[in-house]
Amino acid sequence: MKIKKAKKQDAKEISKMIKQTLSKINVKHYPPEIIDYLKNKNSPERIEKKIIEGIGYVAIEDEKIMGSVFLTSDLVTGLYVKYKLINQGLGKELLKTIEKKAKKLGIKKLFLNVQIVNIIGVLPNI
Ligand SMILES: CC(C)(COP(=O)(O)OP(=O)(O)OC[C@H]1O[C@@H](n2cnc3c(N)ncnc32)[C@H](O)[C@@H]1OP(=O)(O)O)[C@@H](O)C(=O)NCCC(=O)NCCS
Predict the structure, then answer these.
(1) Mean per-residue pLDDT for 11-24?
(2) Which of 18, 77, 103, 116 is deepest in the core (most CB within 10 A)?
(3) Is the pLDDT of residue 67 over 70?
(4) By alpha-carbon position, which residue is closest to atom 10 of ligand 1?
(5) Is ligand 1 within 6 A of the CB of residue 92?
(6) Architecture of the CATH domain 2-125
(7) What is the rounded CA–CA span in Å between residue 83 and residue 26?
(8) How far is CA 124 from CA 69, 100, 118, 120, in A?
């Protein structure tokens, strides 16, 4: 698995990966309206905008996108791992990558909006 900077040409595939994860994983915890809202928030156009205006990283295996994370000033967004690879350490690697980049940019504090089902994973690491 390689983690590399996202390019705007990756937006379509990132959006597809996120939508799949929302349909297979997050769907267990949220009503359809929220899933639709999140899918809309992660449209190819909106992801392309985030890549252009901020920084994004993707995890690649066999030339396919397996995870994503974005940084827009001090806000971390779009942290998603392909549904098949959940809980195998990739989310942690993506977060470490964005933290390292933020540090280089002189950002002292990062913010992340956390979906309620993930809060147990985040609390011990604050
Ligand atoms: C949330 C997500 C990005 C985490 O990535 P991951 O690759 O599955 O997580 P990792 O395997 O790197 O786990 C990192 C740590 O968090 C813990 N963790 C991961 N997901 C968790 C969850 N939902 N609840 C509680 N703990 C969790 C792991 O046990 C691990 O702890 P450890 O370091 O003490 O062993 C991924 O599960 C995902 O894409 N989920 C669906 C989309 C989503 O909810 N995105 C987040 C928006 S806030």
Answers:
(1) 98
(2) 18
(3) yes
(4) 89
(5) yes
(6) 3-Layer(aba) Sandwich (3.40)
(7) 10
(8) 20, 19, 11, 8
